[in-house]
Amino acid sequence: MNKKVVIMVSFIAIVVLLILIGVSIKSTEKSKLQEIVNSDDLSVIIEKIYEGIEKLYPTLETNIINVEDVENVRYVTGLENGDELQYLAVSEPMMSGQPYSLVLAKVKDGVNADNIARNMAENVDTAKWICVSAEKLYATSSGKIVCLVMANDEIAKPVFERFKDLAGVTGKIYEKTEELPE
After folding, report:
1. Phi and psi of 90, rounded to 5°?
2. Beta strand pairing status for 136-142 and 145-151?
3. Strand order in the sheet with 85-93
4. Per-residue pLDDT tens for 85-142?
5. Contact between residue 89 and residue 65 where contact means Cβ atoms under 8 Å apart
6. Can you tell me the distance from the alpha carbon of 80 to that of 151, in angstroms, rounded to the nearest whole number?
7. CB-CB contact of 150 with 136 (8 Å)
8. pLDDT for 51-101, tens place per residue?
């Protein structure tokens, strides 16, 4: 064999090996979020997200949404139904003139959480509060957990960043900025 061919084949083999090692390392990265075994675990994660963030609103309330309640699922997530969700929780002010919503969902086994995050980002109504609209929307996934935050950016960004810090590893980040009327 020609010396150049041997060098080229060796180089290609090394590159392929490095790519495989990189893929192997990437696939072993795991979310740092606790294992979700019931819907209350989502509430615990929401509480952890709020730790260290200045009080956002005087009265935030976290509710567990029944994934079979199509209307509520659609209202908080923008998804047509909760068929691919195992658990769903939402944190919103009890009463406020400010738009704010933090949604966490655990997807069922075999469901692509990143696709759910994308669908939520594309379909949720950022003006669901009728009188006000969220300026900024962030969505991502970590393992089987999907996070969606909608609010004004000075509120949404720190909440979303806190989720990412807790998760450690996230999927693709989906962002939407709404033009608000002046």
Report:
1. -135, 140
2. antiparallel
3. 60-64, 85-93, 100-107, 145-151, 136-142, 174-177
4. 999 999 998 877 789 999 999 999 999 999 999 999 999 999 998 888 999 999 999 9
5. yes
6. 22
7. yes
8. 878 766 668 899 999 999 999 999 999 999 999 999 999 999 887 778 999
